[in-house]
Amino acid sequence: MPHFENELYLALVLSTRAHAEILSIDASQALAMEGVHAFFSAKDLQEPPFRNCHGIIHDDEVFAEGKVTSQGQVIGAVVAVDQITAQRASKLVKVEYKDLEPVIITIEDAIKKKSFFFNSPKEIYQGDIEAAFRSANHVLDGEARMSGQEHFYLETHCTIAVPKGEDDEMELFCSTQNPSETQRVTAEILGIKSNRVVCRVKRMGGGFGGKESRMLVLSVPVAVAAYKLNRPVRCMLDRDEDMMVSGTRHPFLGKYKVGITKEGKIIACDIEIYCNAGHTLDLSGAVTERAMFHFENAYYIPNARVRGYICKTNLPSNTAFRGFGGPQGMFFGENMIREIASYLNKDPLEISSINLYKEGDKTHYNQPLEYCTLQRCWDKCLKTADYFNRKKQVEEFNRQNRWKKRGMSVVPTKFGISYTLLMLNQAGALVLIYDDGSVLISHGGTEMGQGLHTKMIQVASRALDISADFIHIAETSTDKVPNTSATAASCGSDLNGMAVLVIMSKYQNTAFDYQTCSS
Fold it and tell me: What is the CATH number of the domain that holds 457?
């Protein structure tokens, strides 16, 4: 991110309690420190046109007001001449708390206290599970859990906000997977129109979903400070701060009952899925929904009921992470397969094989499989991997070695690409062709190390039939391509690549003609 003359540095003041009433905030010592310019808290956003809340259900506060519901929740921000001064001053802000009960940490705590975001669970139903359970040869009960996971991208959350000095214009340089959302929420909090805010992203040092929504925890306070002080303000979180405020992969708990035939074929499943969302909703509704879509993995279950509960706990809000609930759901399905195999004393491979989806089956979310080559892929994988011979070798090795063991497993995977909310499956691009034959492309996707910009150059190069040396990708910016979807859901290359391709197909000969003339 660029440096600006006269810029200031911001440091966050974070909650040290998981659930407490805020009795008082005293920033006098911090403000008395040399080099400190200002302290901001919720009271600075109480007067219109400012706002203090954002999020899907407006439960994410820019600055905690009245009480905190998680350790690491942002209470305020100190702005100073440099990073060290700001961080030292933030430690001098005294916050007096009164602890509140209960403090809910785990999914089990939430179940016991009935702490959920919605009164009733999400539910997907297919077939007649009661009749199927009655006809089953065996009925098994079980549960499985998956813990959270830290994103640990190399570059922590960082933002610099630059007020332009007139017409309330603001420029944000932000490490975000979702520039349009950063633009929209910043404008909403500042009480200005989105056309006054431009969000720019050259590249990120990793994202993995952790910068799809939680970047707002930092970017909005930075924008507020810059707007109030009318000076550029920068902040880059230290690793410990980033881990406190940004959330993790959602921990999940699955409790299931499964009905099977004597051969091990699943004919019924009733499963409850619990998601630890943290203290605000964030994207947990969509994450839970995707886990519900994936609980059966690649296996056909004709009679199924899946219920999803979004647990409200006193943890930092968990958020998008690679797979977005899908891995947790698939884990439950594979756990069922192995429990069935253990119960029937059979090889898990055999149980997997007889339960795989086939062409003509319908998923529990009512999607017909009109073209399904899963069985063919499965058989070819076993053959090309020489699975059965290698398994015999593994078994022989294990018989001959007491302390060293080997194992072998084959697991199918079903994963839904793109957004469930169909309106998000869109993209845009701006292509400029100059009179020397060079091409400048801006598109709606963000580069975070996955090579998206390189792919867009390749698409343009082939479509225009010119060398990639003549093509350059500019930064992603909301004043070039508006209303973009987040670069997420494993579809950034497909969506933005098609946007570039559609444009290039209209001007296929233009760049080549310019190059010919200029040479």
Answer: 3.30.365.10
